[in-house]
Design brief:
This protein is α/β, with parallel strands linked by helices. The protein contains 8 helices and 10 strands. The longest helix has 19 residues. The structure holds iron/sulfur cluster (SF4).
Length: about 200
């Protein structure tokens, strides 16, 4: 995978960009860069696959609802909104540098927009699409159905696993959609591109 074009386009939009061949290299970079901070994590299989939570918790104060007990998850989601650093991934990235995310509860997309000194998006090569329309198609028809299956939702996409049915199910996980055209003003935003398939 050649990241030159998307890197250049992301940088022209104002994002910082780092490129790594492997998830291990990306994790080592983040571990070195984030120190002594409060750090929030959005729901992300990519971050899980990086194993970065376990690395950062040794020298940062972490907030991640995924590892919190059920009775504190809501409180932790709120705390994630105002940490110094927030880490997440994306459901799609277009070659012209637009970052797409679908959310159900909304905490992940909300936290990616405001409230931190710095936000990191860790994005594997499988999320990259040639055009915005294809990145949107991927987010809706690949990432969201797979997430619905993973979460055991009773939605048509989770049953069939083939595409989005734009359902009206009470279990629908697609309630909000955010496209970042650029970093939010006043908040440093770094995209970490990894030349490996990561997440859904
Ligand atoms: S809108 Fe419904 S069918 Fe479509 S991906 Fe989301 S949960 Fe699945």
């Amino acid at each position: 995978m050649v990241f030159e074009t998307v890197k250049k386009n992301l940088e022209e939009r104002g994002f910082l960009v780092s490129v790594f061949s492997t998830a291990a290299e990306a994790a080592a970079y983040m571990d070195k860069s984030i120190d002594g901070k409060t750090v929030g994590f959005g729901g992300s299989l990519t971050l899980q696959e990086l194993g970065i939570y376990e690395m950062l918790e040794r020298h940062n104060t972490m907030f991640w609802h995924a590892v919190a007990p059920p009775e504190t998850k809501e409180e932790v989601r709120k705390a994630e909104l105002s940490t110094q650093v927030f880490c997440t991934s994306a459901n799609g990235l277009s070659e012209d540098g637009q970052i797409l995310n679908i959310d159900g509860i909304g905490n992940r997309v909300a936290a990616s927009l405001f409230g931190h000194e710095k936000v990191y998006f860790v994005i594997g090569r499988n999320k990259l699409a040639p055009t915005y329309e294809e990145a949107l198609w991927r987010a809706r028809n690949i990432a969201a159905p797979k997430n619905a299956m993973r979460l055991g939702k009773k939605t048509p996409c989770a049953v069939k696993g083939d595409r989005c049915y734009n359902c009206k199910s009470p279990d629908r996980i697609c309630q909000s959609f955010v496209t970042l055209w650029g970093p939010s003003m006043g908040m440093e935003t770094e995209v970490i591109l990894v030349d490996q398939d990561l997440g859904l």
